[in-house]
User: Which sequence fits this backbone?
């Protein structure tokens, strides 16, 4: 009898501790963030689609984070987002005050590992706010105006770096259809590429839809640009007359195109470093999920012509693991197609 009473008391004590643990943990998170500044770090410069998304998120996510910290945007361009990812993974404080606005860094890890000092699968992914939709976009005076003419007309396409999707998409399309256009790297942001296209320095680039629609909608209204190919899993509703890369790719090379396209959902994702305490990761994931249904945030995104198509942390993590687990044979063929190896 005494033994049973002790067992009941012990069980009740454990239950009480479990009940108390969650509020205490939440309170600790709120106390940590109260009065703090949280930085959203992106691997590009200001003025294009990542900047639009980053600033819109920064304006709204604070009220969903316990303690309601001040949220700012920072820029660390370089190597298609790799420099920013290295920073978040390594020397940035592992306390939840630095959040990465991700590029397709798992693809960079697999395809161009030189300079990569992170493991994508070890980031704490918060979720993705949309899939990136990039389109081969040419200025209206460019010599080519159709996919077929890309094979015969002298075209110069701009890109960030060989590790960035802006270069990889252009290379994949070139390989798929047998085109002979020139790809020039060295641009630091979508805004830089847009300016270079406008002044005739390049004929076009594989721009994100939001970079054009969100920052230069008059180009569309005035037919200043031509969109020839979209690099998406399927045709976007607002680009229903523009073929996808996979539609143009021969069957023997289609798995290569599909591998790179698998990176589009997490090219617009958010993550924190591997050392961030679990309770803060959980709080930030909850904040991200809440933001994705926040009416004020969605209204602001719509006003700025930003598409929102969220995936939660579990979905993004699964996609990251799929890419990082690809076979060496497939990776070799992908590298050849995107111009990384001969």
Assistant:
């Amino acid at each position: 009898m005494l033994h049973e009473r002790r067992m009941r008391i012990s069980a009740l004590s454990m239950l009480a501790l479990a009940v108390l643990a969650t509020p205490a943990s939440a309170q600790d998170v709120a106390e940590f963030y109260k009065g703090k500044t949280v930085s959203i770090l992106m691997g590009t410069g200001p003025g294009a689609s990542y900047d639009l998304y980053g600033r819109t998120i920064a304006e709204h996510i604070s009220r969903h984070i316990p303690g309601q910290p001040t949220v700012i945007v920072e820029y660390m361009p370089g190597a298609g987002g790799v420099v920013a990812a290295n920073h978040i993974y390594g020397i940035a404080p592992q306390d939840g005050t630095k959040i990465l606005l991700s590029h397709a860094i798992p693809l960079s890890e697999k395809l161009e590992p030189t300079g990569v000092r992170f493991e994508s699968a070890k980031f704490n992914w918060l979720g993705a706010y949309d899939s990136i939709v990039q389109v081969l976009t040419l200025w209206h005076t460019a010599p080519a105006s159709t996919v077929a003419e890309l094979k015969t007309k002298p075209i110069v396409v701009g890109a960030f770096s060989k590790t960035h999707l802006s270069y990889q998409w252009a290379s994949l399309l070139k390989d798929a259809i047998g085109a002979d256009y020139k790809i020039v790297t060295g641009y630091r942001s979508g805004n830089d590429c847009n300016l270079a296209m406008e002044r005739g320095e390049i004929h076009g680039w594989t721009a994100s839809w939001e970079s054009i629609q969100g920052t230069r909608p008059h180009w569309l209204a005035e037919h200043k640009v031509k969109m020839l190919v979209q690099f998406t899993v399927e045709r976007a509703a607002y680009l229903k007359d523009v073929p996808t890369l996979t539609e143009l790719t021969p069957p023997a090379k289609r798995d290569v195109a599909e591998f790179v396209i698998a990176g589009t959902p997490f090219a617009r994702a958010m993550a924190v470093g591997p050392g961030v305490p679990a309770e803060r990761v959980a709080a930030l994931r909850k904040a991200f999920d809440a933001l994705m249904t926040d009416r004020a945030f969605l209204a602001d995104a719509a006003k700025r012509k930003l598409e929102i198509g969220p995936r939660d942390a579990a979905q993004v993590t699964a996609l990251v693991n799929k890419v990082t687990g690809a076979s060496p044979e497939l990776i070799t063929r992908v590298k050849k197609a995107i111009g990384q190896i001969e």
